[in-house]
Amino acid sequence: MSSFPSDWKRVVLGDVLDRIEAGRSFSGEPRQAEPDEWGIIKVSAMTYGTFHEYENKAVPKGTQFSTSAEIRPGDLILSRANTREYVGASVLVGECRPRLLLSDKSLRLHPSSNVDPRWLWYALSAPNSRRYLSNVSTGVKSGMRNISQTSLQAMPLAIPPLGEQRRIVDILEDYLSRLDAASGNCDSNQLKTVGLKRSLWQQVFAVRAEDQQWQVASLLDVARIANGQTPKGLTDRLVSTAQEDCIPFYKVGDMNLSDGRFMSTARFYVRKSDATLLGLHVRTPGTVLLPKRGGAIATNKKRILQAEAAYDLNTMGLEPSERVHAEFLWHWLQGIDLSRLADGSNVPQINAPQIRDLRLPLPPLEIQQEVLVRMDKNLGALNRLNSDLEHVQRKAAALRSALLATAFSGRLTGRASDMDLVGEMAGV
Hints:
It contains 10 helices and 22 strands. It has 428 residues and is of the alpha+beta class. The two termini are 20 Å apart.
């Protein structure tokens, strides 16, 4: 639709603002401010549509600053620096703690008297606005992007009279509250599926004293523990496309690439001849990979090699003996929180000495196979449920985007037919 209702005016954002106020730049301490301390917000406080006051850094004692940069309820704040996906994200501040300051990566927008701040916030979140802000941002393509105040003020808008703005906001908030409730229920149920999976693992691997077929073995008794390697000169020999006589080379970040049990694709490959030249150890299919450091330790990102491969020094491999099926070992590891074993450094890490004595419940191989059949059936049902919930979340996000697009093209009436139009625009 190229035209708007006759009483709407085409303007740019600068026409409907009294002024834009920028925060200041100074280093905060790498911790959240205490209630009696001043804090300065991080870009993550503005990233996800709701103001997160706890996303702040403590202002060092003795730092000189003006309290005029303090954030107050009702402020409309925009992130002028962020990744391409989130640059220009805005929030309308509700209740918030005192002593929080704007940072140099945030802007406070002061709407003029003929603009409802709620309407402007929703307008900034509409698909056309988000597209514009992303496209005019500058900086490293895959890193932090920035928006100048000049580009921000030049953003095109179509604005209705003040009364119509308020009517649109009331309708929007009615519809959006229902979408938010549906998304909240999905979030809750997705958390429940995680809990059910953990309960399933714990139940399956609980050794019963009366069952003499189950034994308890240390991890070192049933698997060879091997550290990955990143030899000097390897980076120059990696290729992004599988070629003849190549093997996959997995980095710790690749733990997130697959949602299933096996990693069948890789981002990098190395020729076997280069692997031999560099002294890179090639591991056999069935090796269970797990990350050694960072948040991934706690998120159960563990995979089984499907083919011969090598992996980096931030990854550990468990090569099962003939006493244990690789999948049985993988399932058991999924129920273990390895983060509790990590060292206390700034980047927590686990190594072979910390996991070698973990106790693994171990039945005969034929019973292991029975356990795997049962696990596949139960986990398959939970994974299908989780997939359905993810589909609902994507549908809710599409409806939200289409609803905002409808509202800011002048087609939101408040009638039941609105959602038919929104559904058609969202393709659901």
